[in-house]
Task: inverse folding
């Protein structure tokens, strides 16, 4: 009788979901633990760099245990989908929760949080009225005043890909070449160092992801007296600020595709989005969710309407462009 009862319990237990993620484990795991608590579904989490995870999925093929891929950067998501590593999923809930420009038109992946990349400036040395667009930072007036992050990082690559999608490759190359000409110092390996360099006087302006600014402000609230944010490209016909993503999709060889879909739907829901982005200083992808108070204080902005998948598709060309202009 005991054995039979144990068998019934085992059959009743919901099937686990295996997640491959390039997100920092301590940022994602509390949310996944909450899902387990609410649903009883066990989550098996494996973390690594985005590129490593896509290569792992490709090499594992049909034997992969992964049900869900959660990663960062629209180029990485686009690449995973184009390589056949993600499957098409019919989910009215996901399509309702995630704006059309922040998801794959083929329903293979969806954004789960926004990662804005905009302009920062030294509060005591730059008049914000003189700042307007990414393109403007290529003009001679900013020579010797600009800080940038290395081209080896996907965030630089995706911003450049957005420029190609918006202007075409020739014009984008002219802009990026202007940025390189205007560099005040060597490129930075991360945005936190870049923002600190602005404060220290190494440069007057820079382009960075806003959540790095949020992380600094959470520990040093007065940092916004030294370095401030301005939303790029907010004027008429200027195209809006660049928004990158964290996002996810159901893997091509998922053993539990229904469980994977339900997890992504839950992650994109209003209440969970608020929790998912608080403390990470990203913006919720679900427009009904509340942003972290630090993020909210930066004010509303107009994002680029370009589709994330379209921008992602230009990333290979962006990498070649960055190499051509000597952007290190």
Result:
């Amino acid at each position: 009788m005991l054995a039979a009862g144990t068998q019934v319990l085992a059959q009743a237990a919901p099937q686990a979901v295996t997640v491959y993620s390039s997100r920092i484990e301590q940022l994602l795991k509390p949310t996944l633990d909450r899902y387990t608590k609410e649903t009883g579904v066990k989550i098996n989490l494996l973390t690594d760099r985005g590129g490593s995870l896509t290569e792992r999925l490709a090499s594992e093929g049909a034997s992969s245990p992964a049900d869900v891929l959660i990663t960062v950067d629209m180029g990485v998501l686009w690449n995973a989908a184009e390589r056949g590593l993600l499957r098409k999923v019919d989910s009215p809930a996901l399509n309702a929760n995630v704006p059309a420009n922040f998801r794959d038109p083929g329903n293979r992946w969806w954004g789960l949080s926004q990662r804005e990349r905009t302009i920062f400036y030294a509060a005591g040395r730059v008049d914000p009225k003189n700042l307007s667009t990414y393109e403007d930072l290529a003009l001679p007036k900013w020579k010797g005043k600009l800080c940038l992050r290395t081209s080896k990082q996907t965030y630089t690559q995706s911003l450049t890909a957005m420029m190609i999608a918006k202007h075409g490759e020739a014009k984008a190359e002219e802009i990026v070449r202007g940025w390189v000409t205007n560099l005040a110092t060597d490129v930075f390996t991360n945005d936190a160092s870049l923002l600190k360099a602005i404060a220290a006087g190494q440069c007057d302006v820079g382009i960075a992801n806003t959540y790095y600014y949020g992380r600094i402000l959470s520990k040093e609230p007065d940092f916004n007296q030294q370095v401030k944010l301005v939303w790029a490209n907010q004027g008429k016909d200027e195209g809006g600020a660049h928004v990158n993503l964290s996002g996810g999709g159901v893997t091509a060889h998922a053993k539990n595709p229904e469980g994977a879909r339900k997890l992504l739907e839950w992650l994109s829901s209003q209440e969970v989005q608020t929790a998912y982005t608080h403390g990470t200083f990203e913006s919720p992808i679900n427009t009904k969710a509340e942003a972290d108070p630090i993020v909210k204080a930066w004010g509303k902005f107009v994002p680029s309407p370009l589709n994330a998948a379209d921008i992602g598709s230009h990333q290979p060309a962006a990498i070649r462009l960055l190499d051509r202009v000597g952007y290190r």
Remarks:
- The mean pLDDT is 96.
- The first strand starts at residue 17 and ends at 21.
- Strands lie at 17-21, 43-47, 68-72, 110-122, 146-147, 205-209, 227-230, 242-250, 283-284.
- The domain at 17-114+244-291 is CATH 3.40.190.10 (D-Maltodextrin-Binding Protein; domain 2).
